[in-house]
Amino acid sequence: MARQSDHMPDITPQVLLKAYACGIFPMSDSADDPGLYWIEPESRGIFPLDAFHVPRRLARTMRHQPYEIRIDSDFDAVIAGCAGNAASPYRDKTWINQRIRALYHELFVLGHCHTVEAWQDGRLVGGLYGVRLRGAFFGESMFSHARDASKIALVYLVARLKAGGFSLLDAQFTTEHLSQFGAIEVDRDDYHARLETALTSEGDFYGLDGCATVDEVLQLASHTS
Length: 225
Known about the structure:
It is a single chain. The radius of gyration is 16 Å and the shape is globular. The chain starts with a strand and ends with a strand. The strands form three sheets. The protein has a seven-stranded mixed β-sheet, with helices on both faces. By secondary structure, the protein is α+β, with helices and mostly antiparallel strands. About 3% of the residues have low confidence.
């Protein structure tokens, strides 16, 4: 895994977007470390959108509609939830520091960062955030304070990406948690080929009708088994 330190204080949202277009993304060593470094994994985790898998038990749970799903309604609360819950696959503590929060908030204001949120009784109980760049979506982190909340948010994300014509959902790394949904690892060359293709088209993050039923979301996202 390539890692390059950054000591520049003025990384901008535009620099971040250029980095994503080149297949790299930033992380920090801990929430208390103000520094960032660039990551380019040798093996990249992705979700093939045409093979996304929704476990049958989760589909049953979704049909009971335990949560209200909102889009982009409280970015700061979502990234705060992720920061309290976001260990990386190779680190047991969060990597989301204040610099990450500020940079991605700027991306959110510019319309390049999005959230999918699960709410229950007026309280945010789970969700995810990520970066949109043309036909690619780069998943950054997720959190859950209620059963299946982040998993359901992921299914809604995939349905939204498929409805909007996206071709790449980057998971950065694969984990056992993500593999149950069909996440796979591809090598760097394969990833860059997929990324290059995704950047030639423009995805519409708001292409999914907000009135879509749970069954329509499940049908869009995948087959269940």
